[in-house]
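Entry 14. Structure prediction run on the chain below.
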Amino acid sequence: MSLRQHVRHLLRRFVRIDTKSDRALDTLATADVEGQDLLRHRPYSEIPGPKPIPLLGNTWRFLPYIGNFNIQEIDKLSKRLYDKYGNIVKLEGLLGRPDMVFVYDANEIERIFRREEKMPHRPSMPSLDYYKHVLRKDFFQANPGVIAVHGESWYNFRSKVQQVMLQPRIARMYIGAIEEASTAFLRRIAKLRDQNHEMPDDFLNELHKWSLESIARIALDVRLGCLDDDANAETQRVIDALITFFKNVPVLELKIPFWKVFNTPRWQQYVNSLDIIVSTISKYTAIALSKAKSKMDSDKELSLLERVLAREGDTKIASILALDLFLVGVDTTSTAVASILYQLALHPEKQALAYDEICNVLPQRDAPLEVTNIDNLKYLKACVKETLRMYPVVIGNGRSTTSDIVIGGYQVPKGVHVVFQHYVISNLEKYFPQSDEFLPERWLNDQDGVRHAFASLPFGYGRRMCLGRRFADLEIIIVISKILQFYKIEYHHEKLEYYINPMYSPKGPLKLRFIER
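Output returned:
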């Protein structure tokens, strides 16, 4: 009997565990084995993966013409690596950055998250870290926020804002504000439709405007007017800057980091985009702060900025939180909505079921949404989960090891970037039978224990879970429910592939038809 089997046997004999499978025993047994003797596991050097070459390591694979790794096709690359090497893959020899270990096993991901320490490190973003801590240090000072920040600085900031950000009760106070932005988007759809009821080629950009408007209402209680006919050009500049920022991140992080040596054109483009975001959002934050003093003693609902300000009494913390929300909350949420609408158009029978549910839960189209309405839209929420399973907006996340650890039976040293490949994992048959089919019904019950809780994590998990998840969930459900109340969505063109641009989204014009009901 192996050591792991022995530990499992003892656990079965002396510990009562209510579980749908052996996953919990696997996790406990593996943890116990690790604690006994790290050296009994295979060495780090034996983790399979593409072999590096002298001088250029594996970085050459991302170079144009000679390389075989396309940054815009990381989804396909990740699947290739899994198919060739298995549940754990090492990508070493990346110039200017630590090795990466890709994990494709939900049990291992669960075990890593369960043993997470007080201040877990995500794989760093040296480019954003340099921007916050060196280039614009005078602006961020001692409060650089939560993105690309680690250690005590991250922990102190997160501790001050998470009570406001992660409580469902607080998030639901903003249903009205989100609904207002969604109603404005409905008016925009009516104006954008052509004679075939079809959206223009830049429909995704219109969704970016809706998302920016929603976040401004929630975070600052400021109306930007992004969806107005005479919208301020400044808001489009922010959207363009956000897209530029995200598009440049993988290039700066995975290709040869020349930007660390001299001021490359791409680095300058990246910095300029961040400067636009920081300066513009800071301007709107200052407006919100000036209004906050008069609102504190009134009965009007407070914005997130005002709640943090009332709680902490620090305008800098409130301002940096607002900036972080805009930085990562616009493209991600709007791309998720675009993907969900597209999948509903491709699967009219599922859309019909979602519409029937909406009619039952919200019989009056113009009645304000209530918390109970949101709670009862179970099938629509299943459609959201199924879309984000098949096409997660961010296809992976991970941790940077802060100590030696065992993963998949291999020793992994401190400082390695462990990347959880969610896109590949959530499309594996062993976790989701008929994984290539759009089946929202799979999320409505899990009586047979087939679904693994860590096989689809579109918002991450644990202490570094997406800070704005509660609000993103509400934004997505509210805007889609409002759209389906008034429109049937159709798509009459060639089926689109997905690609990273900069989020995981359909490739090509999203020419959806919105047919009035």
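Residues 143 and 317 are 6 Å apart (CA to CA).
Filed with the rest of this week's runs.
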